[in-house]
Design goal:
With 127 residues, this protein is mainly alpha-helical. The chain has helices at 12-22, 27-38, 45-52, 60-70, 74-87; strands at residues 110-113, 119-122. Helix 1 runs antiparallel to helix 5 (74-87) and helix 2 crosses helix 3 (45-52).
Amino acid sequence: MTSLTSPRPTQLGPLLARCRLARGWSQQRTAAELCAAASVPTLSRHEVSRWERQRRVPGGFWLGWLAVVLDVPLVVLAEAAASTRRVGPPRAVGPGRTDSAGTRPAGRTGPARTPTGARVAVQRRPR
């Protein structure tokens, strides 16, 4: 069993990635192990990636199977999931995405959204 003691609540995404990597598994292998254990053929590595990047938080069904497959106590995963839900998803910054201030990364042009969700035109900076 993996030892995962921490003084403060752990975020679920990094915890899942650490447990997966400790076993030497890819996201694809993890998804395959989960599918085999749960007898559900539809889980893909993309969903495992979303969990690790905290774009989504798995529900009780998948938390239970993650505990079995990764050999981690369910209570540890449940606490990490609750902590992740309290904090919320991370803000994405990259092509076509805005940062927490509602601005776009330097050098990007095209429509962006303000913090209120309104679309605005972004002008290209002179070089």
